Automatic annotation (TrEMBL):
<dbReference type="GO" id="GO:0016747">
    <property type="term" value="F:acyltransferase activity, transferring groups other than amino-acyl groups"/>
</dbReference>
<dbReference type="Pfam" id="PF13508">
    <property type="entry name" value="Acetyltransf_7"/>
</dbReference>
<keyword id="KW-0808">Transferase</keyword>
<feature type="domain" description="N-acetyltransferase">
    <location>
        <begin position="1"/>
        <end position="139"/>
    </location>
</feature>
<dbReference type="InterPro" id="IPR000182">
    <property type="entry name" value="GNAT_dom"/>
</dbReference>
<dbReference type="InterPro" id="IPR016181">
    <property type="entry name" value="Acyl_CoA_acyltransferase"/>
</dbReference>
<protein>
    <submittedName>
        <fullName>Acetyltransferase (GNAT) family protein</fullName>
    </submittedName>
</protein>
Length: 139
């Protein structure tokens, strides 16, 4: 008889555990390239993070998962600069496409459209009648 398998949950995954999963996926699909995470930060003179974004380079695409700018620093072009850095990094990593998702209540679709993104899908059914918008652009 097989021993039971335990499923573990954490809301704060260790980077080593995420890296383990990425390495295993990369090992199984070497002909398609490799996936790996990225992270960009902007800091003020006090070395505090005022803006940042993260995501993954994955099989020819760079996906931005999260983009945040401190409210006191918005409307100053920081998000635009971060996304330029993402696009440049994606090109250097051999990506031909950039992708993002945003929630309808975040009101950031126009921001991404100004950067050349186009919506290619929208999924409804989220909290308070909101939707998730999927956008992409060529690099």
């Amino acid at each position: 008889m097989k021993s039971p398998v335990n499923i573990q949950y954490t809301s704060t995954p260790a980077s080593e555990d995420i890296d383990f999963l990425t390495q295993k996926i990369n090992q199984e699909t070497p002909e398609c390239g490799k996936a790996h995470p990225f992270l960009f930060f902007m800091r003020d003179k006090k070395n505090q993070i005022i803006a940042g974004c993260n995501g993954s380079v994955i099989f020819g695409s760079i996906y931005t998962d999260q983009l945040w700018v401190h409210p006191d620093h918005r409307k100053r072009g920081l998000g635009h600069k971060l996304m330029e850095a993402v696009h440049d990094y994606g090109r250097r990593s051999g990506c031909s496409m950039a992708t993002v998702t945003t929630m309808s209540f975040q009101c950031t679709k126009v921001f991404y459209e100004k950067l050349g993104y186009v919506s290619d899908s929208e999924r409804t059914g989220y909290t308070r009648g909101s939707s998730c918008i999927f956008l992409k652009r060529s690099l």
